Amino acid sequence: MSFDYSKYKHGEVLPFLPPKHDPITEPDWRKVPQPKPFIVRPPKGAPNVLIVLLDQTSYSDPSTFGGAIKFPTLDKLAAEGLTYTNFHCNSLCSPSRTALLTGRNQHQNSQSAVVDGATSYPGDTGVRPKTVAPLAEILRQWGYCTAMFGKSHETPPWETSVAGPFDHWPARQGFEKFYGFIGGEKNLFSPYLVDGTTELGVPRDPDYHFSVDITNKAIAWIRATRSLAPDRPFMMYYAAGGSHPPHTPPKEWLDVYKGKFNQGWDKLREEILERQLKMGVIPPGTKMAPNPPDIAKWDDLPDDAKEVLSRQMEVYAGYCEHTDREIGRLVQAIDDLGEKDNTIIVYIAGDNGGTAIGALNGTFNEWSNLNGAPEDIEYLKTRMHEYGGPKSYPNYAVGWAMAGSTPATWCINACQGGGQNQGMVIRWPKGFKSKGEYRTQYAHFIDIAPTILEAAGIPEPKWVNGVEQIPIAGTPMAYSFDDAKAKDRHTVQYNECTGNRSIYKDGWMACVMHRAPWESRPRVDSYDKDTWELYYLPDDFGQANDLAKKEPAKLKELQELFHQEAIKFGVYPMDDRSFERLNASVAGRPDIMGDRKEMILYAGMTGMAENVFIDTLSRSLTVTADIVIPKGGAKGVLVSQGGLFGGWSLYVKDNKPKLAYNWLARELYEIEGSEALPEGKVQVVYDFDYDGGGPNKGGTGSLSINGKKVGEGRIEKTHGAVWSLAGETADVGVDAYSPVTEDYDAWDNAFTGEIVEIRIRHKD
Fold first, then answer.
1. Distance between CA atoms of residues 100 and 102, nearest Å
2. Which end of the chain has fewer beta carbons closer than 10 Å to its terminal beta carbon, N or C?
């Protein structure tokens, strides 16, 4: 049975079908009227679209929302547009981003948590269902030029290699142009970049910075599309690297905020609250919520801790302002082309609250905490001269995230204010007259896509690419553009993150802290034992007054509503595991390696993220390299994994084999071969026997040439949980990312002989 298009309005079925023509019986073209070309164009007057998203920026970090960090671009757009002070995200990166890009809730997108921790439960597979078409795909099929620049953290980890499939890469999600990286984060000085579905490797530029690069590429793309296709509007998604860790701005921004945070996070919160009340960002009389007990009082900290912790915030602040100024360059370029007033600009200052990976002390190397080796203040002080520079991978202490959530508290992972309050500004002079005003209506990431469609005059599609669509869950926001007192239309919203959860309805919010972001285990052993909190936000935006005991009937009503919404949107079952979910076999998701105990590698295989490489953590293994040594000897890397902040490398130096194991940029273990490699075919073997007894333990390694042992040594400490996920790569024949060791040049380290094959085999 053929599809009945007559049931649907124009644009509710995509793609558009070209008109049908009767068979042509006349052979002479001169006698046949030529039909008009079939070209799809958006409705007349449809605006350009620029969506800007910052990463892990807290609600009150920007000056626009009373913060101490200058955001001149956001401030200017707010003065020219509308500032939404009651805007909300999900509590983690991937769920928020898929909600933004589709207008559906996180579990409808099957993104319960970060995509790296996906399971096989329907609401948590990490695979966006085909029943959910992204905004970019809709606009593309309507004739928009579409592009994305920056970070994409929505691709299933087992699909991130050159083997594909590429269906869930940005370039196959409606963005005709994608330039940036796939994954949660990268080293901003030497990221492994992707253009479309082509891996570009690492820029060889000592002055490179990711934020500058993506801005340059975004400007070039807009200029080109305006030159070549000025009749087609553009849709750009600029997903900034800032202010996600590592907190590493260009060197000229490291000291811009020197001494600006010596007062500490407690005093900073008071200063922010005072500014917010004066500016009118928050309702008069708003009280500040107390920090969790784990967050130390600043005045109780020793001087060494204050010195270390204040430096962390100085660097972070410089990083934030630099990111905002790069966005300013992009906005100015649009203005220079005369397109700014015809562009609806949505600038969202963060996707999930401030980061907590730094835990209570912060980190010089983020991967320390993730590998069960936190850095104390004494150690951090020894690295302060490098903090924020290219030899650091830093993250501030969570106390600064709490300050950034003022007047609320908490941070990423939390479903309280600090984990889901987010600042947002919209500028669109052709769409509304209001300027420099606040809007207090409740709004959420899922509201952006339907707002854009409504602004463009494009209907929500019912079918896309042959698949019937589930309805958009968000609410268009245009009703509030020119009516500050308009009654809220988005009245109910749930949020869930690894067992932490909340439900909002008509100003009331009930929420649960099931496990704090820095806690390794849930606070209770079953969800029915959780302690619920209750707030009435119109009177208590900071969530300082818990009404759970005073209003038990209202709390019960909201608990039941959460249950109903959870069933409706596929929230259940909630999975409160933490880092265990990074292990594919434990989490139950697909794994490109499957149950394989051995991997055979060949020359030219570079850029392999941790999720598409054999597991080399906390286990005994053998690395066998079959190579050919030319006359006169050879040098260079045979195989490496990780880099400057943790990794291992098997390489040749002075024509002798060598193994370097970099433990968290804190200790370097080396095993050197005592004999030179002969010319011709050679087999080099690195054998590692793990001590056992759990993760992060040591072991004994040995090197052999053609079966003869030529070196042995101890590796006392190992990575037990993660190398760096998508941050670093495994490479054959080169150390292509940041170098594991300074024993070879960061750029010129390719093996000068021939690699026949390399085998990595588990011994257990």
1. 6
2. N
Q: Which residues contact 36 (CB under 8 A, 6 or more apart)?
A: none
Q: What is the DSSP letter of 178?
A: E
Phi, psi of 200 (to 5 degrees): -100, -15
Beta bridge partners of 624: 685, 759
Question: Do you find a cis peptide bond into 243, omega within 30 degrees of 0?
Answer: yes
* ∠ CA 508-346-112, rounded to 5°: 55
The distance of Cα 247 from the centroid of its chain, to the nearest Å, equals 14
At 21-67, the pLDDT tens digits run: 999 999 999 999 999 999 999 999 999 999 999 999 999 999 999 99
With beta carbons less than 8 A apart as the criterion, state whether 409 and 289 touch. yes
In sequence order, the 6+-apart residues with CB closer than 8 A to the CB of 604 are 732, 733
The rounded distance, in Å, linking the Cα atoms of 45 and 601 is 54
- In the structure encoding, which two tokens stand for residue 426, read together? 């919209």
**For helices 210-228 and 303-336, angle between their N-to-C axes, nearest 10 degrees:** 10
Report d(CA 301, CA 568) in Å as an integer: 47
pTM exceeds cut of 0.85: yes
Alpha helices in 33-145 (DSSP H): 72-80, 93-102, 135-141
Give the residue among 664, 650, 764, 742 at the shortest CA–CA distance from 705: 650
The residue among 498, 260, 293, 279 whose CA lies nearest residue 409 is 293
Q: Which residues contact 533 (CB under 8 A, 6 or more apart)?
A: 416, 510, 511, 512, 513, 543, 546, 548
Query: H-helix or E-strand containing 569?
Result: helix 552-569
Asked if 92 and 414 count as a contact pair (C-beta separation under 8 A), the reply is no
Does 165 sit behind a cis peptide bond, omega within 30 degrees of 0 on the bond before it?
yes
Which tokens is 215 given? 């801005």
Spatial strand order of the sheet with 463-464 comes to: 13-14, 463-464, 467-468
